[in-house]
Amino acid sequence: MTTDEGRILQKKTSEIRETKINRHDFLTMKRNDVYVILDKINNGYNLGAILRLCDVTLVKKLFIIDGKNAVARKALKASKGSENWVPHEIIESGADCIQKLKSENTQIISVEICHDSVDYRKIDYTKKPVCFIFGNEMTGVSEELLNLSDHRIHLPVAGMSNSLNVSSCASVILFESIRGNK
Predict the structure, then answer these.
(1) Mean pLDDT, range 84-102, rounded to an integer
(2) DSSP string covering 25-51, please?
(3) Residues 42 and 71: beta-carbon distance below 8 Å
(4) pLDDT for 24-51, tens place per residue?
(5) Which of 84, 56, 72 is closest to 181 using CA atoms?
(6) How many CB atoms lie within 10 A of CB 10?
(7) What is the pTM assigned to this prediction?
(8) Is there a cis peptide before residue 129, judged by omega within 30 degrees of 0?
(9) ∠ CA 53-42-133 to the nearest 5 degrees?
(10) What span, in angstroms and rounded, lies between the C-alpha atoms of 30 and 44?
(11) Domains of the chain: residue spans and CATH
């Protein structure tokens, strides 16, 4: 294939923008009954990638447990504008957030490899609302939040790596959770 043929197959940025909903109508769209809690994500790239993912999957709200860490604030600035379109909140306590979501009958699912986690394909995502917790790149989801979760799931891995990058994992889980939504 020549370079010119390749360009015919790809849409130009201006063509993609023409098919997008306008900003005013976007703000009135119904969002999916999916929440995300990020448990002390330390890498700005991961946080920015997940923020953009929450935008494209129309997550209802993103909660970022940041504590005294400034990564969240920096990543929000670097997220290519997604922070303007994703309802989000920087919080101190994941436990308080989970208790509030549970009082609204939200199913809480930690995404973490642990002794009682199950393959993500074995969970019923149709029971909404649902909240997914994704953990720190090195330490995972905190023990406290794991204990507050209704389910613990993992993505099975066959290679020598122990797990996927947190933003890659979030992509699989969030798209799976909205599959079939219109």
Answers:
(1) 92
(2) HHHTSPPEEEEEEEES---HHHHHHHH
(3) yes
(4) 666 777 889 999 999 988 888 888 889 8
(5) 56
(6) 9
(7) 0.84
(8) yes
(9) 55
(10) 28
(11) 31-178 (3.40.1280.10)
